[in-house]
Every structure is written in structure tokens, then in C-alpha cells.
Amino acid sequence: MDRIHVPPVGPMDLPLSLLEMGCSGRFELITHQLPGQPLPPLSTLPHGLPPTSLSLEREVEKQFLQDPGWLPIHDTDFAFQKFLKVTERKVNVDALLNCTPSPLHSGLSVVRDPTTGMLLDFTEVLLENTSLSAKNSLSLQRQPGPPSESLRGSNTNYPFLPGGMDELTLDQIKTRSEQEEEIDFENDLLKVPPGLKAGMDFTDKEARITKPEVNLMSLLSALEDIPDLQLEAEEKEDSKAGEEATKLPRTNSLEDLGIKETLSSPSSAQAGKEDKSKVKENPEEKKKWAIPVNISSPCEDFYKRIPNPAFKWPFELDTFQKQAVLRLEAHDSVFVAAHTSAGKTVVAEYAIALSQKHMTRTIYTSPIKALSNQKFRDFKNTFGDVGLLTGDVQLSPESSCLIMTTEILRSMLYNGSEVIRDLEWVIFDEVHYINDAERGVVWEEVLIMLPDHVSIILLSATVPNALEFSEWIGRIKKRHIYVISTMKRPVPLEHYLYTGNSTKTQKEMFLLMDAAGNFLTKGYYTAVDTKKERTSKHAQSFGSKTAPQNTTASQDRAVWLTLLHFLSQRQQTPVVAFTFSRTRCDDNARSLDSMDLTSSVEKAEIHSFFQKSLSRLRGGDRQLPQILLMRDLLKRGIGVHHSGILPILKEVIEMLFSRGLVKVLFATETFAMGVNMPARTVVFDSIRKHDGTGFRNLLPGEYIQMAGRAGRRGLDATGTVIILCKSGVHEMADLHVMMMGKPTVLQSQFRLTYTMILNLLRVEALRVTDMMRRSFSESHRDTQAHEKRISHLKQVLASLPPLDTEGQLSDILPYYHTVTELRHTREALQQAILESVNGLKALSVGRVVIVNNKQHLNALGVILQVSNDAVNRTFTALIICEKGNEEGGPNGEDNGALPHLYNTALFVPEGPCSHTVQKLKLQDISAITVKTLKVIPDRIIDNYNKRQQPRFRNDPPGQAISTATQELLRLAEANPGGMATLDPVNDLQLKSVEVVEDSMRLRVLQDSLKDFSCIHSPTFAEQFTRIKERMSVQEELDRLLFLVSDQSLSLLPEYHQRIKVLQSLQYIDGSGAVQLKGRVACQISSHELLLTELLFENALSPLAPEESAALLSCLVFTQNTQTEPHITSTLKEGINRVLSVAQRIGQLQRECGIAQTAEEFVGQFKFGLTEVVYCWARGMPFAEIALLTDVQEGTVVRCIQRLDEVLKEVRQAARIVGDSVLGSKMERASLAIRRDIVFTASLYTH
């Protein structure tokens, strides 16, 4: 539409104007114009009429000439003067103040006519908790954050409150409960609504029949009707409620408060339900969180209990699957441990279907990215509404089922992602990965951080300690975990030994373990014999060279050709051959050049599938040597699968294998971790593998996991597992352990990481010690039992009689402490003497010692025999005593006051001297004297034992005994004040610092005992026993209080060391508040200290984008390389800088006490791929890059993909610091490496 030019208003024009009324199209004529107002058409719309067409001139002027943002930075004077001429700039100071509007604390509510429903009025209602936001609260009541942060959250957000953490302290609860009353769901509820004549019957019996299970859905529906009743109830019961309302503190579990009533508040209704049922059963019994589910009996009433399931399968479910589905319907958490291919995925599928039915979300986490991709494809075909989140891919994140790696879920939990609100299930697949030393800690963090409303499904291979693990999760989450464990294999396995190596011997396959799991030694011995026979024949013809341990390539080739020929004849393909080295995989596959296992139809199918899958690659990439080699191998039905293969090729091979077109697959162990890709036969090239430190036999868990790939459900009756015996038959013991042994137990790999510490320090309400206390490594701490015992001991203490510490007894407490210290010192000394050579020499036969125990007080004895048991060594000795005290009769109770400590006077019998022969412990010997006696031990012992029999009871003692007794008595009478004893330092030559200190302390303590006045008091003995009793209770109480406190956490010292490191690097301040550097480190998932330091030292500024990408490759590359990279000088400087920063951090950690040495810390960073990444970022084709290094193509691709994630993290970090230049540089680096074959999308996600 052309613009109409209206001439300016002249004096002759009438002053009138049109006003458009809103958008209705009505106009009003305005004749009396207000002075100073323009005449053109006016409007009641807030921004005036929409412009008909813009004047370009005006726009350009406004945008370019009058916008101060366009002013040049340099040479300001001249430009500025010009600028001022062009524009009249109005100063608007208020524009600098930017305040987000505070949330409204009230809302509008509608008042309707109760009969007609007509709107009558609006009333203002006050809203609660309006100030809660993701920046200050852990509550689910807080406002959602901005949509851009809803998926991944933000690192300034608080996480949601982890389940099982105690929400409020008691003081907070008191103030809370003064402000608000809890609804009492048991008593004083209104039965008749106001205005109605009849009401509802809320009696217990009805409720119990209709609702045996309380689950979340039924609770919600019950709660919807309550607020209205509550208002009425409050009006009526206000006066009563004031006095009577039970102020029930809000915690997540009743037992935290020791409250065992069945009264429950809305927030703890779930916990209350569990508590009630437990209390009824048996209040004494310790609460068990893990509940094993019996799956031996079939589940008959399954279809009655679930008439319309959320998901139906075309096959009948096994018992364990039905039990799991029943638990899911009840909204319980489950742990399912079963063999691969037993059908654990059913449980996951049902949970996803349930969450779609409930309109909630499910997160499925897996340990490996490839696994995530495969699951994405499977679930996408089944459910449709599925999204994928991995480090570099994000597909439909709004879906109800999200598949992701565990690391991403961890960062979502720490960053308070909004997805967590709608989450109903989290499914952890392959939970036995928690044993992984590097990444196991992630699982534990996620399990600890999950909020209360999320139920957990754990799927794992068979593990022996599933119950213990579930008990731990149940305890930290305060909810029951149902453990469903099955050892049944849908397809049983048969294990064979294979000794063939030529067409003549190709049938030499011996059954070692049958399908029922019996180990057959017969098969083993036959295998050994056939092998022996052949070697002896060989020796006859070629001289007796012992068979070499390692076979040559040609021998290997012979074995494989023979075996595969044999298996394909018997139609035992597809075969997975597990080989524990990548080069061996490649060599074996290449050596089978004469073998062709596919028909022409299959060849055509393989060819077309291969071409179609690789059609996405650029021309040059399709000609990569690895791809050409693999195409040739695949056509003949042979595949290779390990981490050195390009990811896209790996996927092609997996897909062809699952279609049955790859007949032989040479794979490393990682293939067994992947999804269900069963074969008919599994072959073990060897049973030894290198685990990064050295060679070892396969663990039972690893063997079971890999052997479990044999046998396809519904296709094979049994699966075949073959162990090759190339050089010789393996040891029977090794085979037995490997096949019959227990799989590896789940063990905690929990360790502190700086990211974890910083993420928890950001949030005042979460403490790192809480995280440590909840970790699986601390699961042996049964705090609840300790708490009970503590309260019991406190009561005992309170009930003990009071101490009398008046007058003479005023120093009885210090006396007790001195005596106790003396006892400990003496025990330590005796221990030292016993462990020394000289001490044992001194305590030999004939040595006179001073004995103190319940029966004897400072009595002399002579050693007759010393036992050989080094742990609890005993000494048989002859001791003098009063006549009639030989047995240490009933009067020999514990001499509580320990008088011998200050009284050195030796025991001299008042009446006739008698003797006894006793076995003494080291504690009974209070001193070793300098004297020895000549004794005949055997005679003395025999004579004494003889006189213990009733008929010789009254015989006189033998010659040897009388002589010894007389000698001891003579010594005692000669030295009534005490005998000279051997001094451990001077006489026994024990010169260690501890012994010298102890013996000096002993002397001081013994001297000080004489000065106490309490020993002269007549009631001393009685008071001393009392104080002993009280102190023993107190000591146990202190021990338990220590165990419950944070001080006993095994990782606490390391935590303090790491805090020290963070403080000295200024990531946190003295009070533990996270500083800017700490905020940056939170963004980074691995090597956070090094990266943050490099950022703050501007180490990346002088580098070009491709150089910085190359430099950062040291963080993701972990292998050693042989080739020497050729790199630019700036890169060399960069590398030196990184190494010096790493050295600095390593030394600082060492100074703060962390065990890792600086060399180890620096050694983590490997620069083998710098040249490769540099050339790749500069656009060199992949084929040329592969020639620059000896690292395999697949590893290079994986490293560059992970590098992209690091670059993203650095970009985020640069944004936080405000370094936009670095941010854009990282973006450019990221774009430079994201191309071609390295970032081809996965075949599974299309």
C-alpha cells in the first residue's frame, strides 16, 4: 500500500482528529485538540496504531547513527563530537537499574453462586511461599525457573531435597508447628458436610478392606477433598485443637523422632503407612528395608490383580517379571538381578508404560553411550515418545521417557532441573557398573541425590550381595526396596574345551559343564590326554621341545579355521569370539582370508545395507582403509568389534550381527556390556586378560557376563560356550573357579571429587558429610541401632547410684583415671616386651615372676612352660599361695581396687605355704624379676596333675615341687618390700621411643599413686567399684557417640585435605562459601582444578581456536602413544604451561596431605593426540589424520567427541567469568572439530 503524503497542517485547516476506539473499528471525532498534542490518527491501543509501512531512512538513522553501542572504541574524541551532532541523546538514569519484579504475594479467587455457578465476585487470597525460587530453596513448592534452564538446570540453582534427608531440625519444626496445625487424619474429622443430613462413614474397618495398599495416586485423590473439611474443622475445633493438637514434626520418617504412634502427617503418610504395618508385626525387630521377593511359586492371581495392565507383551511373563510388575503397580522400588537375556527389559518397559499412563516421566540411565543409543532405538519403536540426552546429542528432550548417561542425570540433579518434578521412575541399567573404579561413584551420588517422590528401578547382572545393596538404598531413601533375584537362564549353557587345530582333529570338543551346571572332570581329563598325545607325537618326530606358551599367528590361524569350519558345518553360527586384545581381534579376522561364510543372497543384503548406512559419509571418508577392510570382511560374514573401530562401523556391525548376517564376530569385552545381542555360540580365545595393571584370569562375573551371550531365546535349546586350548589345557582349578565361582560383589567405589564438594557447598542445607555418611562404603554404620543403644546407655547412666566424692574420697576420680592410664601403659609395655626377642628370652622356663590376678596379689611364681601360640601366648607357672586358696575359690572376685598398683610388698603366706600350677596370660604377670630358679618342669606339672585326681588328692607334693616352692618362699621372705625387676629399657635393651616413654610414664604414675588420700578411706573399695561401673558405661557411650558422629567417617580426613586445597586455590573462602573460581569449577565434570586454573591464568588466550582444542585434548586422551607429535611452537609453550600448572596443583595437593604424588597427577595428562586434533580442527581429511598416529581410528573419534564436550564446558565457564572472547573462541574450536565422520549421527537415532 502506498503511503499517502498529507501536507503539514496549515492555519486554514480545521483542528480535528480521529480517535480509533480499540480494535473494534469504531472512530470518534475529536475537534478540540489538546494543546501540544499532534493531530495524526490517535488510538486507545497502548502502543498506538500499527505502522502501515516503516520509513527506512528513519530506521537506519535510529539503529546505526543514534545508537551509542555503535560508537568506535578508539579515537573517541573526533567520533564522539560527530556523534553528538547527529543525535540528541536523552539521559535516562533509570534504565541502569534493573529490578526483577518481586512475586505477587496474593492471588485472585472466584466467588460463585452455589446454586447457579454464576460469577459473583473476586476475592484476594494470600499465597504462601511466594519467595521460594530455584536460587534459595530445595522445596518442590518453589517456582519453576526459566524455560531455557528447565532441562539441564543451572549451576546457580539449588537441587531438590534428596529423599531420606531430614528436612527440618527440631527447632525449625517447633516454630513451624506454632504457625500451622497439622490435620489429624484419625480423630475429630467431620463426618457430615455442612448443609447435608447424612455423611460418610470413616471407620477403620471399611478403609482397610477397600484400600489395603496406600500408594501415591490414592493418597492424592484422598487429599483433594480434605482442605475444605479442614477449614470447617478448624473453626469448630479451634479452642480444643489449641491444647490437644499433636504437634507432629515434619520429617520424612517417624522413626527419626522415636515416635511410634500410628498418627501420621500428610508429608509422612507414606512412611507412616510402613511404620504402622511394622509396629503391628513386631516392634522389637529391627526394621528391614530390603525385602526379598519369593519367585519360586508361580504368581496365579496376576491378571486378577492387574486386570488392565499398562503394557501388554506378545508372550507370557516369567514369575520374576510378574512379581516386578506387581511391585511397580504398587509404586514400590525394585532391584532386579538376573542373567543377561533373562528379560529384565520387561521391567523397564512396564515402568515407561506406567509413567505414560500416569502422564509422568521416566529417566532410563545406562553406563555406556552406545547402550543409550541402542535403547533409544528399541524404546522409540515401542513407545514413540522417547528422548535421548548424551554428551553431544539431544533429541526430543520434552518426551515422557528420557534416555541418558548417568553423568548427565547427576548434573541435572545438582543443577535442580525441572524435569525432576515430573519424574516418577528412574531406571538404572547394568547397576553392577557401580564397581567401576573410575565412574562407580556417579551411581552412588545419583542414588543419594534423588528426591523422595522418585521410585527407583535397578537392573543388574546376578550379584551375590543384592540384598545388602538394596538394604543400603532402602535405608538412605527410607523406603522399601523389593529384591527380585533369579538364577534361571532362559537358554541353559553348555561349556566345552576345544583342542582341535587341523581338519584331522577338528571334532575334538569336550563337554566340561553341562546345561544343569555340573562340572565334568571326565571331559577335562580327556582333553588333557588328547593334547598330551599330540605333543608326544610331535616330540617323536621333531625332538622334545616343550610346547611354547604363546602360539604363533599361523598356529592361531589353524585353530580358528578348524573351529569355524567345524561350527559352520554343525550350524552353530553366529559365533562371538571374545579376544582380550584389539590387535589380536584384527589379526584373527584378517587371517581368515580364505573363509567365506555367507550365501550370495546374504552378500547382496550386506552390501546394500553397508552402502546405505555409509551414504551419510563424505566421499573421502567412505574410502578409509578401515571401512574398505571391514566391507571386505563383512561380505564374507566376519566382523570385528572393539573400541578402535569407527563408531558408525561398529553400529553397522551390530545391526548386521543382530540380523544374523555376521557369522563370526571377533569382539573385546565391551561387546558383552552392550544390549542384548545374543549368539548361538561364544568362543573364548583365552581366559586371561590384561586389566591395566597386569595379566589375570577372568573373574567369574566377567566370564558369566560374556558366556551369557550364548543362546538366543526362542531359537536355541542350549547355548554353546567354547574355551580354546591353544598352547595347553588350562588348569582345572582355574576353570572351576571361573565357571562355578561367585560373581563379583557390588562394592562401593565412593570417593570425594572436587566437583561434588563444590556442588554441595553451594547449598547451605546439604553437607558433604551427609553425602559421605549415606555412601555405600559407609553402609555398615547402622546409625539407628547405635542411636537406640545410646539412649539406653543414657538411661542406665541416669539410674546408677550417685558417687560419694566428699572428704577423703574427693580425689577418687583422678585416682581412677591415673589407675586406668597406668593399666593401659603397663599393657602396652607388656605387649612390647612380648613382641621383642629379648623379652621372650627373659620369659623362659625357670624365670621368677610376680603374679597379679583375681586370685593372687603380688605372689611369686616360676615359669614352667611357654606356649608356642604367638597370638595368645600363655605361661604355665608354679605360684605360691595360702593353704586353701589353691583353686582361687569363690572369694576370688575381681579385686576392683587394683591395690597392687601402689603396694609393691610381696605376698608372704600367713599360714603354711601351699602352691598351685596355673596357665597365666601376659596380663597376669605384673613384673619379671632378675632371679631364675633351676626347675624340672615336666616333673612338677605331672606331679601336680596327678594330685588333682581324687584318689591322690592327699599325697604329699613331689620332691621337685617342694624344692621350687621352698625357693620361692625364701625369696619372698628375703625381699618383703619387693624384688628387683627387669627394666624393659636397660635390661631388655628395648630402645624404641614408645617403650622408653611408656616406662618413664609408668614410673611417674606409680609414684603419684602414693599421694592419693582416697585409698585410706574405709568405703574406698565400694566407691571404687561404683566409679568403675559408671565409667565403663560412659566409655561405651562415648565410643558410640563417636561412631554416630561425622568424626568416624573413613573419608573425613581426605575431605578436610581437599577443603584445604580448595581454600588455598581460593575456590572457597575461609567459611566455606563458594567463590567465583569454585562456581566455574562446578561447571566442569572432570579435571576441574586444572581447567579452572588454566582459565584464570589466561593460558588459552594466546592460542588460536584449533590450538586450544589440540591442547585440551590432553584431558580426554588416556592411552600411551609411540609416535612423537610435530606441533607448532605456541602449542609447545601451551603444553609446558599446562604441565607447570598441573605440577603446581599436584604439589599443593601433596602438601595438603592427599596421597596422590605430583608426578602421578601430572602423568594423567597425555599429549599424544595434540597433533591429530590440531590438524583435524584445521580441516585435514580423516584418512590423512589416521596416518599421523598409531592410535586406532575409533579411539581418535571417541576422543574428539569427548573433547567437544570439554569445549562446551569451557565455553560455559568462560561465560560465567565474563570472558566473551574465550567463549566465542571455544565455540569456533567446537565448530571446527564437529564435522564429517567424527560427528556422523548414530544409526540408532535415525
What would you say this structure looks like, in words?
With 1246 residues, the chain is of the alpha/beta class. Among the domains are: 290-486, P-loop containing nucleotide triphosphate hydrolases (Rossmann fold), CATH 3.40.50.300; 493-539 and 552-740, Rossmann fold, CATH 3.40.50; 811-884 and 902-1018, SH3 type barrels (Roll); 1083-1238, Sec63 N-terminal domain-like fold. It contains 43 helices and 28 strands. The longest helix is centred in the C-terminal third of the chain and has 25 residues, at 1020-1044. The protein starts with 16 loop residues before the first strand and ends in a 13-residue tail after the last helix. Keywords: ATP-binding, Cytoplasm, Helicase, Hydrolase, Nucleotide-binding, RNA-binding. It comes from Fundulus heteroclitus (Killifish). It is found in: Cytoplasm. Residues 136-157, 234-285 are annotated as: Disordered. It catalyses: ATP + H2O = ADP + phosphate + H(+).
Fold blueprint:
Blueprint: E1 17-21, E2 26-30, E3 42-43, H1 56-65, H2 76-86, E4 106-112, E5 119-126, H3 170-179, H4 204-210, H5 216-224, H6 226-244, H7 269-281, E6 290-292, H8 302-305, H9 319-329, E7 333-337, H10 345-358, E8 361-366, H11 369-383, E9 386-389, E10 394-395, E11 401-405, H12 406-414, E12 423-428, H13 440-449, E13 455-460, H14 466-477, E14 481-485, E15 493-498, E16 509-513, H15 521-542, H16 553-569, E17 575-578, H17 582-591, H18 600-613, H19 619-622, H20 625-635, E18 638-641, H21 647-658, E19 664-667, H22 670-673, E20 681-684, E21 688-690, E22 695-697, H23 700-707, E23 719-724, H24 732-740, H25 754-761, H26 768-774, H27 783-799, H28 812-835, H29 837-842, E24 847-851, E25 859-866, E26 875-882, E27 913-920, E28 925-932, H30 937-948, H31 959-974, H32 993-1009, H33 1020-1044, H34 1052-1064, H35 1076-1083, H36 1088-1096, H37 1105-1112, H38 1129-1151, H39 1158-1163, H40 1170-1177, H41 1182-1188, H42 1193-1217, H43 1220-1233
Parallel strand pairs: 1-3, 6-14, 7-13, 7-14, 8-11, 8-12, 9-11, 12-13, 15-23, 17-19, 17-20, 18-19, 20-23
Antiparallel strand pairs: 1-2, 4-5, 9-10, 15-16, 21-22, 24-25, 24-28, 25-26, 26-27
Biased composition (Basic and acidic residues): 237-247, 272-285
Domain Helicase ATP-binding: 325-481
Catalytic activity: ATP + H2O = ADP + phosphate + H(+)
